[in-house]
């Protein structure tokens, strides 16, 4: 290690010490470098030589701001979203945009948006409906919360939008009434006992109602609500209904009929006269008479609207409605659709005592409850198999087919299986590729090694195979893609000055007339291709030293004269006669020739028009030219004039003797009788027409099913459906039998077709009477002691004089009692005997017409005869 003298540094003391003069002063440490020095400043100082105070040493800038030193101070360079001398303030408007031209105003902890009049909301994002549409009009203050608007009406206005004038706002009815606002005025509803336009008058002063409650009437008058038992304007007259009874729920109504004498002057009195009153009965329905004692025969007044049979009853009547009608008076047409008889979303259409169902396309039958087998209509076409489901069907598509009905062909080319710009040809369930000449393989993804197959590089070039192509590495004198172009070395002026560069195949020469001699009187001159000799007629060659024996064309028109050293020779050239027609090019080969024809022509002399030029055969087909036409010899599995059609039948897909027929993009199997299916693989079980009576046969996997027409059912539609016409009325259930039908009726109906209303169902016979149905009505058979159409009345046996002599008959409900008395002096006992009817039957104690004998102890007083 070297100890360097003062002023030098480095490992070998061969470098000047730049820190010798202490450039960093007292505020930094100098570090010597190869190219100079650097200063590491002490805390609080900065700059190249630590001469500047570092005001950023304490870094008072907030929120990640960048501190920058100045001459006498520092500044904080704030990040986006902050501001202030120390970047201490958050700019809430930085990341917040007020919408719809709103102006953002920053605050200490938040922001606000100053919105145009048409907008409102935190960010001016909501339409200010109060401004744009003014829904509250000119008589209210409009308030908006979100998109909901409310109106606060000004004094004197009311209503949802404050458009109604409020005449009640100053309470014109006072404390004794309620103000009712109207369109252009108001009215007052007064409290009881008050009246007047503004409820200002007390109508019941001096208690004018003697036996009742006073309240205000109209026109400042009063009205009296009388206590029970009193009537009259001032409740001063006894109600005659107190002593007048209306039977069977009738209502007694009383009235003051007249004033006898003079005018009524005060409550309860008449000047020189008295008040007369009258009571009458307002009968309940089904009763009439002065006291509502008679049953009304409503059947004389009602015909049950012509849709039923009327039956008079005690206090009323009943209607037995015809089929299809209901209601107390059979006034309602029964909506047979109300029970939802139509299934599977069918539409029910109500009729008179009937209904019809409008079925969806997937169902049929009276109630649309029978599923349509859509598969029988070949809905999945040739490219799918159909599976019937309840109310629908599903198609299971063959590969390469999709869609509801397998109608969409999925192109095998859709996944782009052919690579390297090859052309993909879609055929059913598969594809094939037409490759570019540079690739091969099923997917055109195998590179052809042109270096092995075609030897493309010329003039000794080296071939290098690449993916999809090749490259030629050419010798120095050759260039071009195939090394087929001679390099013109003269372009770079390789020859010395005053010489001419002559390019040659595979090289060049440098010549000029100063070094080049023309013999036998030839003249030399320089040209772009070097020095050239212009010979006299008797001489030829580059330097004019070859005698020109051919100058007089001694060989004739079909031969070419060639000079030799001392003579000439004649060579035959077949192309001399221009044998190729239609602009064909003649190419000599020894003494023979061939014609290279222009596009569109063929033949030895290019004399035949080539019809294959404009009519290419597709899919690797071979075109064969004819006199005026062409034909294509197709490759395997293709046919058609241009080999454009694929032979889908080449694999013989049709089984069981089916005939395969090609279609545009598929095939179709024409099956023999008794077979069906895409490939005739299924047995046609419907072939023998097993379904009778126009039933539709549906072929299945191992059998068949019959879809029967109306009125028929069964496996082969050979059973008549007697229930098809819905013969059972009133929702009765129809049951098919051997040769007819039977109906299971709902409660309340009977008869073969449930068409008879069971009028005994409601137990119309009272007091244990027996109800007996007849043709269109019923009859009550009463127990002893009761009479009437419904056994509703007690029989008065006493009117029949059934009791013994000297006894008293007492009628009772459902029977009677005979009572008589005698005196026994000896026992001083008063004995009373009674014969009582026991439901019309005599007791076992005494078999007499008087019934059973019963002894009652009444008292012990001795009674005289």
TrEMBL record:
UniProt keywords (A-Z) are: Calcium, Cell membrane, Disulfide bond, EGF-like domain, Glycoprotein, Membrane, Repeat, Signal, Transmembrane, Transmembrane helix
Domain EGF-like, residue spans: 1-14, 15-51, 52-88, 89-125, 126-163, 164-200, 205-236, 237-293, 295-331, 333-369, 371-407, 409-445, 447-484, 511-545, 571-607, 608-644, 645-681, 682-718, 719-755, 756-792
Cite the record's Basic and acidic residues compositional bias ranges: 843-858
Q: Where in the cell is it found?
A: Cell membrane
PROSITE patterns, from UniProt?
ASX_HYDROXYL (PS00010), EGF_1 (PS00022), EGF_2 (PS01186), EGF_3 (PS50026), EGF_CA (PS01187)
Gene Ontology biological process terms, A to Z? animal organ development; cell communication; signaling
SUPFAM superfamilies of this UniProt entry? EGF/Laminin, Growth factor receptor domain
Q: Which Pfam families match?
A: EGF, EGF_CA, EGF_TEN, hEGF
The protein's GO terms of the molecular function aspect are: calcium ion binding
Q: List the InterPro entries hit by this protein, alphabetically.
A: EGF (IPR000742), EGF-like_Ca-bd_dom (IPR001881), EGF-like_CS (IPR013032), EGF-type_Asp/Asn_hydroxyl_site (IPR000152), EGF_Ca-bd_CS (IPR018097), Growth_fac_rcpt_cys_sf (IPR009030), NOTCH1_EGF-like (IPR049883), Notch_Cell-Fate_Det (IPR051022)
Q: What is its main location?
A: membrane
Q: Topology versus the membrane, per the UniProt entry?
A: Single-pass type I membrane protein
Cystine pairs annotated here are: 4-13, 41-50, 78-87, 115-124, 153-162, 190-199, 226-235, 283-292, 321-330, 359-368, 397-406, 435-444, 474-483, 535-544, 597-606, 634-643, 671-680, 708-717, 745-754, 782-791
Q: Which domain of life is it from?
A: Eukaryota
GO CC annotations, alphabetized:
plasma membrane
Query: Region (Disordered): which ranges?
Result: 841-865
Task: Please identify the protein, giving its name as recorded.
Answer: Fibropellin-1
- Its source organism is Magallana gigas
